[in-house]
Amino acid sequence: MKIFLMAVTFFAAQLFVHAQAPDTAAAGSQGNCFDEYKAMFAKQGVYELKDGLHTAIITIRLNGVCTTYEGQVRTQTGKFILPVFIKNEDGKLVPLRDTGRKLNKNYDAYRIPLENKVVNGCSPTYISDKDELVDIFVIDILKPATK
After folding, report:
1. Least packed by Cβ within 10 Å: which of 22, 29, 54, 60?
2. Would you state the pLDDT for residue 15?
């Protein structure tokens, strides 16, 4: 009987997981902001990443909702250096931690040890202390779209 109940619970959990709504973009836009940026970077390509301060787009996903922020990040030897800065409603750059979020420095969202490398202008998927998925796109190294 215990095995039967465990099997039913397992299959019910699987149905629940697969019934989750897909990611949606922030209010006023179509699609998923993360997927759109990921596709744009893959299609257009990027210039070589140099050490220093860069303009970035930060996407934060939670419960099927994707929100996009403009910000700045610092890189050194192909890796992100914390803190990550985002623009608040006043247009001021503030550290991400000042918004009540903290990125896990040790593991990415898939619980794999974090290498923190920038690949094709994109970060690994970080996980915040609020279980949000956080991705960083270094927008100023994105090549222009071909016509």
Report:
1. 22
2. 35
